[in-house]
Design brief:
The complex is a heterodimer of chains A (323) and B (292).
Chain A (H helix, E strand, L loop, with lengths): L1 H12 L5 H9 L1 H30 L2 E2 L7 E2 L3 H7 L2 H39 L2 H16 L2 H11 L5 H8 L13 H16 L1 H13 L2 H9 L4 H12 L1 H17 L2 H6 L11 H10 L4 H35 L1
Antiparallel strand pairs in A: 1-2
Chain B lengths: L9 H11 L3 H27 L3 H7 L11 H9 L2 H32 L5 H13 L3 H13 L6 H25 L3 H9 L4 H12 L1 H17 L2 H6 L8 H10 L5 H35 L1
Chain lengths: 323, 292
């Protein structure tokens, strides 16, 4: 497809004696370039393709990890449909999407706009950069380490209860992660803390791209902050919003480390998520077939969501192009 | 509308400037500043409690100022988990993965972005899929296979796995970068008699060095922070990484609060140092990723 392109492009620049050689050289570049794809392709098959197919096969078996897997067809999937833990874990995924995508993206949009439009332009840019770094800091930490710090803060003898005692609200102190009623909301709050910096940084980077004259002109026209935010900020950073939405949704559906560090899915599965459920089924319950079925369902959902996202993005881009 | 008003006379801009001096901006700054401080509170708590003795913690609680500068907790954690070994493991794994994954993605992206091999959109889609997959969908076969070939509980197993996972993203990003590589540069080199191999190293690589450095930093950090696969693959004190060591100690439920904090502090430090050193590269990388 690109071959005629490059030949056509080279024609005006090359002198006639060289053209035939150059043309035959570039006529069949595919074969040679395939060699460069070889290491990546082999590793891909070894580490991703093969294992994924094998997990797909294992999801059709009953296997404890030793001996031979015995083929049972769709049995595992049928069991999944009536498994309360499975449904709970997927309901919790929705909570994770709220905590890791919806809230951070909305708050991140406002924060990025305020940092860029108000603080960045009315104070020194360094002020905005320092604030941005504070929001981004949790993103660079190993998420498990963040989970362990928060796990301690939320313990019965941790800092949160200490704080409540200190300000006279000791009556509210609580085993935050140990109570099925509060565990999920608290985990969600931690995830918001972890995630918030990512959209802030991406959106601020996107806003650097926007012509500042747009803002100045709008301001002179008398557009208030809200109008500027809607008409300029939101419109200009739509592509980044899609990227943030897609990457964070996938991260939310795959979330494992923080759950492992904070609650291990408990209490009473209140914070269980598909990833942890699969891990637990593989390595603690030694039910490899069932764990594989959970993983395959999760994989399928992620792929569907990603495809829908990318489709929506393409459609939005086309619509923008048409306007 | 924007363009015509873009260079307004000084006179019209002055009032707007004066308007900017209002109290409103200070209120906004105070609000955002307070929010940023809230973000940092957990770090402050951790710092405060990393230097307390367990007795001090149990009598005075998590909010008090330490009664003495107690470093035994840090030292205990350091020795108990053999921290230098964990640090070295994390560095070896993340460093090797960063370099190897960049190499593999550069080769693949060269074929896809510049060689434009047939079916490249499908191939790129496949690589992208590899990056989106939940690792649970791979972990059991990888675990089983690693045991069969004797790579279980070795750093090499983790290095190979993450090289592929990171390279999947790297291939996607570099292929789109190389897709817009100036053709004239390639043609000029080809006319000078350079083969594909030489063109890759002498023409393509020097021109995309900034993207490569961003990828190196990202792969390093991502691999450093990974948890599930190291947790499953590395069970030994001699092979574990920093996050896994901290988490597995927590699992014992033996850790008192000050040691938890000391251990967390030690485990955060490398990440924060790295963040401070590479802040610019990170910011640049996020833009590169978002621009596609």
């Amino acid at each position: 497809m690109a071959v005629p392109d490059s030949v056509a492009a080279s024609r005006p620049t090359t002198t006639s004696p060289k053209t035939p050689a150059a043309t035959t050289n570039r006529r069949r570049p595919d074969a040679a370039y395939w060699l460069y794809l070889l290491p990546g392709a082999l590793l891909f098959l070894l580490v991703i393709g093969g294992p994924l197919v094998y997990t797909g096969y294992l999801s059709l078996t009953r296997w404890s990890g030793v001996g031979e897997p015995s083929f049972i067809g769709l049995e595992n999937y049928r069991t999944l449909l009536t498994d309360d833990v499975f449904w709970t874990s997927f309901r919790n995924t929705v909570a994770m999407i709220v905590a890791m995508v919806v809230v951070p993206t909305l708050v991140g949009l406002v924060l990025a706009a305020v940092l860029f439009d108000t603080i960045g332009r009315r104070f020194r840019p360094r002020t905005a950069a320092a604030l941005r770094a504070a929001f981004y800091l949790p993103q660079v930490l190993p998420v498990v380490v963040a989970g362990i710090v928060w796990g301690w803060i939320l313990r019965p003898d941790g800092a949160l209860n200490g704080l409540l005692d200190a300000i006279g609200l000791g009556a509210l102190s609580h085993d935050w992660l140990g109570d099925p009623g509060t565990a999920l909301p608290v985990v969600m709050a931690v995830m918001i803390w972890v995630q918030i910096g990512y959209p802030v940084v991406v959106f601020m980077a996107a806003l650097e791209r926007v012509n500042p004259e747009l803002y100045e002109a709008a301001e002179i026209d008398g557009a208030g902050w809200w109008r500027r935010f809607r008409a300029i900020t939101l419109a200009q950073i739509r592509p980044e919003t899609f990227v943030v939405g897609l990457t964070c949704t996938i991260a939310a559906m795959k979330v494992f480390g923080p759950i492992y560090a904070l609650t291990r899915g408990g209490p009473e599965n209140a914070t269980n998520v598909p990833s942890y459920f699969a891990y637990f089924t593989f390595f603690k319950r030694l039910n490899v077939g069932y764990g594989s079925a959970i993983s395959m369902v999760l994989t399928l959902i992620i792929v569907v969501v990603a495809v829908l996202f990318i489709r929506a993005q393409n459609r939005a881009e086309r619509r923008d192009g048409a306007l | 509308m924007a363009v015509t008003l873009a260079t307004p006379p000084r006179v019209t801009r002055r009032p707007a400037d004066r308007h900017r001096r209002g109290v409103g901006r200070w209120i906004v700054l105070a609000l955002v500043g307070a929010a940023a401080l809230v973000m940092l509170v957990p770090f402050a708590f951790m710092l405060l409690n990393a230097f307390k003795s367990p007795g001090d913690y149990s009598t005075n609680g998590p909010l008090s100022w330490p009664t003495e500068f107690y470093t035994t907790g840090l030292r205990t954690y350091w020795e108990q988990v053999d921290f230098p070994v964990k640090l070295w493991n994390s560095m070896v794994i993340s460093g090797s993965v960063a370099v190897l994954a960049v190499l593999v993605s550069l080769l693949s992206a060269y074929a896809l972005g510049i060689g434009r091999v047939r079916g490249r959109l499908w191939i790129i889609g496949l690589f992208l899929l590899a990056n989106m997959l939940p690792q649970e969908a791979l972990i059991y076969p990888l675990y089983h296979f690693a045991k069969e070939v004797g790579l279980y509980n070795t750093r090499l197993a983790v290095i190979i796995i993450f090289t592929v996972i990171q390279a999947a993203f790297g291939t996607y990003l570099l292929a789109s970068v190389l897709g817009t590589f100036p053709r004239t540069l390639l043609e000029a080199a080809a006319l000078d008699g350079a083969g594909r191999w030489r063109i890759l190293w002498r023409v393509v690589l020097p021109n995309i060095r900034p993207t490569i450095s961003v990828l190196l930093v990202f792969f390093f950090i991502w691999t450093w922070n990974e948890f599930l696969i190291p947790l499953v693959m590395l069970i030994d004190n001699q092979t574990q990484t920093v996050p896994v060591a901290l988490a597995s100690l927590q699992g014992d439920r033996l850790m008192d609060a000050p040691t938890t904090n000391a251990g967390s502090l030690l485990s955060l430090l490398p990440a924060i140092l790295f963040f401070l050193v590479f802040q610019r590269t990170l910011a640049r990388g996020i833009t590169a990723g978002a621009d596609k």
